[in-house]
Design goal:
389 residues, mainly beta, Neuraminidase, eight-stranded mixed beta sheet, five-stranded mixed beta sheet
């Protein structure tokens, strides 16, 4: 059953229901569609007992929006202050938090060639009563050449590690193709860090590509692939780990068949990496270790029969020994819940999952419509957390 509901009422009723009786095996989480004040939901960021919701309002003078979501408090707006021509038009790519500090990256297709003009944002949040502004973000305008120009690639995400933010994307390589690029911040200024001579660099025999980034309490993890050219062409799933935004980064090729890693989600201790080998969904638990120990990588392939090449893989939500990943399987949306003894499937709202997070005992997800020109383009849903074995 699916229904539209007031955000505060839906979350409160859902939390009480989930707390009293968890869903039976393979039960429908009873999804409820939420209305984030008429805006399109774009991103979800976990903040402990709250979520940060990034939105996009096409008809607003400032299109990017931010709100805090709590179990029963509805939406608490945060301020968004644009400072450049592209700032008011930006659509959030990522919002990352460390304690009360926020960093964001938004994009707007602009210019003669329709290239994305990236904008960076910084700010903070706090407590406060429901409905009161408790903080927000302000744009930090950057020089055009910071993320643009002939050598620029794209941006895939941002996170915090070692108390500092880092943006991850791609940049023209000195030896071949594009390198995995990182940008670090000094004051209000972001700077590209050259990858030449590091594990992030592409070479004439191996091309490195990033697809996503997240972090545990002490280690950033980039998910992507390494395309080897020395004996034919073989794409291998890989991760790059660092305990500092400034590096160094260490590459680890993930076990199993050829393919690529595409998404990563972490809690304080470990990460779940999602990828694909052909039409088969792949997964690996990655537990970063201390400076003197090797990270632990454990394959945990989920039960998906038919993953289409065009199916987007959203970063999974990870909490303790469990994880949740909304994915497409043979054209249908499902939620996969990972636990001690494997995976369990539950139905998800129709469409393409683009984000997921856990709020108390509820799962919150953003689903993009599959029909061209559908309104809204994406919708916000909440349901009882599917419990894994």
């Amino acid at each position: 059953m699916r229904r539209r509901a007031n955000l505060a009422g839906a979350l409160l009723v859902g939390v009480l229901a989930a707390a009293c009786s968890g869903p039976a095996p393979d039960a429908d989480p009873q999804w409820t569609q939420l209305d984030p004040d008429g805006a399109e939901p774009v991103t979800l960021t976990s903040l402990g007992d709250r979520l940060l919701l990034g939105t996009y309002a096409a008809g607003s003078p400032t299109r990017p929006g931010l709100s805090l979501m709590g179990p029963g408090d509805g939406l608490t707006p945060l301020t968004v202050s644009a400072k450049s021509v592209n700032g008011p038009l930006a659509r959030w790519l990522v919002l990352a938090a460390s304690g009360t500090e926020l960093v964001g990256v938004g994009g707007n297709a602009n210019g003669a060639h329709g290239n994305t003009r990236w904008t960076t944002w910084s700010g903070s949040m706090g407590g406060g009563a429901s409905g009161q502004a408790v903080g927000g973000v302000t744009e930090q305008p950057q020089d055009f050449w910071t993320f643009g120009g002939w050598e620029a690639g794209g941006i895939v995400g941002a996170t915090w590690v070692g108390g500092a933010p880092v943006i991850v994307g791609s940049w023209k390589g000195a030896a071949a193709g594009t390198d995995i690029a990182t940008w670090t911040r000094e004051g209000d200024t972001w700077s590209h860090r050259p990858a030449t001579g590091t594990d992030l660099a592409s070479t004439t025999t191996a091309l490195a590509q990033a697809q996503g980034v997240a972090a545990t309490a002490g280690t950033a993890v980039i998910a992507g692939s390494l395309t080897r050219l020395d004996s034919g062409v073989t794409e291998r799933p890989a991760v790059w780990l660092s305990r500092s935004a400034r590096g160094p980064w260490t590459r680890i090729e993930l076990p199993g068949d050829a393919g690529r890693a595409e998404a990563v989600g972490c809690d304080e201790r470990r990460c779940l990496v999602l990828g694909r080998s052909g039409s088969r969904l792949r997964a690996w638990w990655v537990a970063p270790a201390g400076a003197a120990a090797q990270p632990q990588v454990t394959p945990a392939d989920p039960p998906v029969a038919a993953l289409a090449e065009s199916d987007h893989l959203a970063a999974p939500a990870v909490r303790g020994e469990s994880a949740w990943a909304p994915v497409r399987d043979d054209g249908h949306s499902v939620v996969l819940a990972a636990g001690h003894r494997g995976w369990r499937r539950s139905p998800a709202p129709p469409g393409i999952p683009t984000a997921v997070a856990v709020l108390d005992n509820r799962l919150v997800t953003i689903i993009r419509a599959t029909a061209p020109g559908a309104a809204p383009a994406s919708a916000l849903w909440t349901g009882a957390v599917p419990l894994a074995d």
